[in-house]
Amino acid sequence: QVHLVESGGDYVQPGGSLRLSCVASGSLSSVNAMGWYRQGPGKERELVALMTSVGSTNIADPVKGRFTISRDNTKNTVYLQMDSLQSDDTAVYYCNVLMVTDSGTVNYWGQGTQVTVSS
């Protein structure tokens, strides 16, 4: 089992910045990737950014150049630095851990943290 706790969501004006954090605990030996997804009002959940266990990243086109994902393996924490925020970035942001085990692929999700971008 893996437990994820996100923090850092807030209300911010357009052009502002936020940093989200996600601390993972539990059995983390089979983690393949950690990342962030978001779900805006009336929208489906979508990938924002992820980082694999070997350090490669995948950043979604709408946030490329504005958002940066990073990890601190000593703290089992993944971060999402969000700069130049826009109203379209308003969403609940979810931390995700993808694990590959002998039983197959397993996804774990955090409870979500709200980001609201508005003037």
What would you say this structure looks like, in words?
The protein is an all-beta fold and 119 residues long. The chain has no helices and eleven strands. The protein has strands spanning 2-7, 11-12, 18-26, 31-39, 46-52, 57-59, 67-72, 77-82, 91-101, 104-109, 113-117. The strands form two sheets. Strands 2, 4, 5, 6, 9, 10 and 11 form a seven-stranded mixed beta sheet that branches. A four-stranded antiparallel beta sheet has the order 1-3-8-7, with no helix packed on it. The radius of gyration is 14 Å and the shape is elongated.
Mean of residue pLDDT?
94
Give the number of helices: 0
- Helix and strand run: EEEEEEEEEEE
pLDDT < 50 runs, ≥5 residues:
none
Shape: elongated
| Total number of strands | 11
| C-alpha Rg (nearest Å) | 14 Å
Portion in beta strands: over 45%
Distance between the termini: 40 Å
What is the share of helical residues? under 10%
- Structural class of the helix and strand makeup? mainly beta
Largest sheet report: 7 strands, mixed
Oligomer: single chain
Please summarize what this structure is:
The chain has strands at residues 2-7, 11-12, 18-26, 31-39, 46-52, 57-59, 67-72, 77-82, 91-101, 104-109, 113-117. The chain has 119 residues and is mainly β.
